[in-house]
């Protein structure tokens, strides 16, 4: 029978096989998630198999895990992004949901490590998925100048159309904001 030499160094595996009356041939190296680089990752025939005395066992040494560049997953939803990573033997350790104005709710934003980074098979990443734009309360800008009101609203991540109708007011000076639509303290989403 072929002795088990998986995980052994080439020298130790060769010595054990030769001691068992077998010949050793070194085959092509292979990538392995489980076996450290430079150790026996595969043997043929496999351990425990019957082999004739003076038969040959081929050893395939480990190159260690294969590295993959993290792909762009833009346009993928959470399950599509997870499946694409799993196809590269990269797992998702956790999913974080974050507000993102430019990415629709439920879709990929980024990974950590970042897109383009090289990671070994068997590693894991954090997957960030959009919760959509962040909800914000519309601030009360009545009585402010149009410029100051625009700055305050944009500071909250809101888009501003200052081209509203001018109206007369006995209490608000000319050129200042009388009202907003939506009304102050209304919750809207950024953007």
Task: Give your account of this protein's structure.
The longest helix is centred in the N-terminal third of the chain and has 10 residues, at 10-19. The protein has 191 residues and is an alpha/beta fold. It is rod-shaped. Helices cover 16% and strands 25% of the residues. The chain has a 3-stranded mixed sheet, with helices on one face.
In short:
By secondary structure, this protein is of the alpha/beta class. It is built from 3 helices and 10 strands; from the N terminus they run αββββαβββββαβ.
Oligomer: single chain
Average pLDDT figure: 91
Number of helical segments? 3
Helicity range of the residues?
10-25%
Radius of gyration: 32 Å
Which percent range describes the beta-strand content?
Answer: 15-25%
Throw out a few tags for this protein:
191 residues, alpha/beta, three-stranded mixed beta sheet, 3 helices, 16% helix, 25% strand, rod-shaped
